């Protein structure tokens, strides 16, 4: 529907004009002396939260009328109040967003135009999603720098309320409380459109594990989750909003309001011998990378800088780890994997036709509602709804067969292979250049590109592809490890020949040196390291993302931070 411009009365009784043109909402103040109009608001529709025309029966005044008092004569032909709520950028280059609310009055003669205008604004502001979401907001008061409560009160709630969201807020009271909530809450699917987590990655992991344990686990896991980054490790937000906007709370709140469904793979991890299952959405680490998280908790005040400290400390200790891994490999060819990721990024950037939305790497028709989301994900598996309501499949111990490859690190701690003898990785080499007996510094498996703002560890991840990306890092000199920090946020380490890179459907790991290393980490949480089996659960969970995808790093968009193509080094 085309909306005409709507004449209005502004707060100081001056004349104004509302206009919707070329993807922007403008509020103009008209002058009576022939001067050009003054632009009070000019907002891209992406940042518009709500337009609303007050009920005709009880008109409110323009400025200050939000106190609820009627403005003068309460008659049927009195002017009606129109509210416009949006996020505002300070200037075109600014990432900071502020909530702005404008109230105007519409005279009776323009009410029909104003109604059409409001409808057109809402349609343009929510082209592929449904407004007024019902939000379960979980707040971890102690995560990160401990400021979640005030951030939620001062920034998040005003924005969600301005968009007309219905919010149920729950503070987590103790460790694993979020998991309990997700496991036991009454989940009315038509009611909870999104679980928002004012926390770090830990609470997201807890929520996913709680949902996974429910008798209706399959369906429950697809409840969209949207992070509000108030923890110290907020990798999920880096992947959704980019390095610069990782901690942009207003942008994250906008994602709660308007984010599109992004189906993601999960990993199911069977811990042995206990036979306990956990699910992971982010990372699985053994070796040096485990130390990034553990032993640095007391440095929370540093924010995510504490992980750089953990890395340097790990390099200084320079241990190697003894283990046996079995991989169900789908790809090890670095050039082919980089090309596939770049092709997918290019496809993501192809403009959508009206009415289309992006669902991971597929384009789907129609708007997103809670039930539409279920369908979108279910369509991928073409399973019936009753089958889909049940628990997730049990994780039984995996039985690697002959097609799996076995990667074994050295048994002699002093032995290091001369790296100059590294065989080049060739297409079809399922070992990815690894030679059994090499010294292993760490392995790190991940399901989204960034594990922190400083490290794009898996730059060629294809979300929803049913694969987990695995880096196996040989022991290198301390100097080389420190040099690897440069460019790590852009995925430059990917081309390092001492980093073997695999795409896997599943893998198993056995600890061959239980004295040397006692724990490994899942999404930043520590677990005893004996043996564990990992299987990918394709598209098992859903995040919200403003563009329906993860952010594109420089690695896949073609250039590195030095402005050069991020390509394999020349021989
Ligand atoms: N009220 C509470 N008291 C103590 N621990 C809590 C409380 N609420 C949540 N937790 C725990 O806090 C941990 C950190 O969660 P969160 O995801 O917010 O942050 P993080 O970025 O992963 O870690 P960090 O605490 O370093 O910011 C989780 O293990 C969670 O169980």
From TrEMBL:
Bias (Low complexity) ranges: 58-76, 370-385
GO MF annotations in UniProt: lipid kinase activity; phosphotransferase activity, alcohol group as acceptor
Residue ranges occupied by any DAGKc domain in the UniProt entry: 130-273
Keyword field contains Acyltransferase: no
Basic and acidic residues composition bias: residue spans: 410-419
Pfam families in the record: DAGK_cat
Keyword Cell division: no
GO terms, biological process: sphingosine biosynthetic process
GO (cellular component) term, any one: membrane
PANTHER family linked to this entry: ACYLGLYCEROL KINASE, MITOCHONDRIAL, SPHINGOSINE KINASE
Protein name: Sphingoid long chain base kinase 4
Natural source organism: Vanrija pseudolonga
């Amino acid at each position: 529907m085309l909306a005409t411009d709507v004449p209005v009365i502004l707060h100081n009784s001056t004349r104004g004009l509302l206009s919707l043109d070329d993807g922007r909402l403008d509020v103009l103040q008209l002058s009576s002396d022939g001067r050009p109009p003054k632009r009070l608001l000019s907002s891209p529709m992406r940042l518009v939260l709500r337009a609303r025309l007050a009920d005709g029966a009880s008109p409110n005044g323009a400025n200050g009328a939000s106190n609820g008092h009627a403005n003068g004569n309460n008659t049927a032909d009195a002017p009606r109040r129109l509210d416009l709520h949006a996020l505002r950028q300070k200037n075109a280059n600014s990432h900071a967003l502020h909530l702005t609310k404008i109230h105007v009055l519409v005279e009776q003669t323009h009410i029909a135009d104003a109604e059409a205008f409001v409808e057109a604004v809402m349609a343009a502001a929510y082209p592929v999603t449904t407004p007024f979401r019902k939000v379960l907001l979980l707040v971890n008061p102690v995560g990160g720098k401990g400021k979640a409560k005030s951030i939620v009160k001062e920034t998040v709630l005003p924005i969600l309320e301005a968009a007309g969201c219905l919010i149920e807020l729950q503070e987590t009271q103790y460790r694993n409380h979020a998991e309990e909530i997700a496991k036991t809450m009454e989940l009315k699917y038509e009611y909870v459109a999104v679980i928002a987590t004012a926390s770090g990655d830990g609470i997201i992991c807890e929520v996913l594990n709680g949902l996974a344990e429910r008798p209706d686990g399959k369906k429950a896991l697809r409840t969209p989750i949207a992070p509000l980054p108030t923890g110290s490790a907020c990798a999920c937000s880096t992947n959704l909003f980019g390095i610069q906007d990782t901690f942009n709370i207003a942008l994250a709140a906008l994602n709660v309001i308007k984010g599109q469904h992004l189906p993601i793979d999960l990993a199911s991890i069977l811990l042995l011998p206990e036979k306990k299952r956990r699910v992971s959405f982010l990372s699985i680490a053994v070796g040096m990378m485990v130390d990034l998280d553990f032993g640095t908790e007391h440095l929370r005040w540093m924010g995510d800088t504490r992980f750089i400290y953990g890395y340097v400390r790990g390099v200084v200790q320079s241990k190697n780890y003894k283990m046996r891994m079995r991989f169900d490999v789908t790809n090890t060819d670095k050039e082919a994997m980089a090309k596939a990721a770049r092709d997918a990024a290019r496809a993501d950037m192809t403009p959508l036709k009206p009415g289309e939305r992006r669902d991971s790497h597929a384009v789907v028709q129609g708007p997103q509602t809670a039930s539409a989301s279920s369908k979108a994900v279910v369509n991928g598996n073409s399973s019936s709804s009753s089958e889909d309501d049940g628990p997730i499949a049990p994780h039984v111990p995996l039985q690697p067969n002959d097609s799996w490859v076995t990667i074994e690190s050295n048994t002699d701690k002093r032995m290091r292979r001369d790296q100059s003898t590294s065989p080049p990785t060739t297409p079809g080499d399922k070992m990815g250049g690894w030679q059994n007996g090499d010294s292993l510094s760490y392995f790190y498996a991940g399901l989204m590109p960034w594990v922190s703002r400083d490290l794009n560890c898996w730059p060629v991840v294809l979300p929803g592809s049913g694969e987990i990306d695995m880096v196996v890092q040989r022991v290198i000199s301390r100097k080389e490890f420190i040099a690897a920090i440069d460019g790590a946020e852009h995925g430059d380490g990917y081309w390092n020949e001492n980093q073997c890179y695999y795409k896997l459907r599943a893998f198993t790991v056995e600890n061959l040196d239980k004295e040397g290393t006692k724990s490994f980490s899942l999404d930043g949480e520590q677990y005893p390291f004996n043996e564990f089996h990992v299987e990918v659960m394709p598209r098992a969970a859903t995040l919200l993302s403003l563009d329906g995808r993860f952010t594109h790093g420089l690695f896949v968009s073609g250039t590195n931070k030095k402005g050069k193509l991020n390509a394999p080094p020349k021989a």
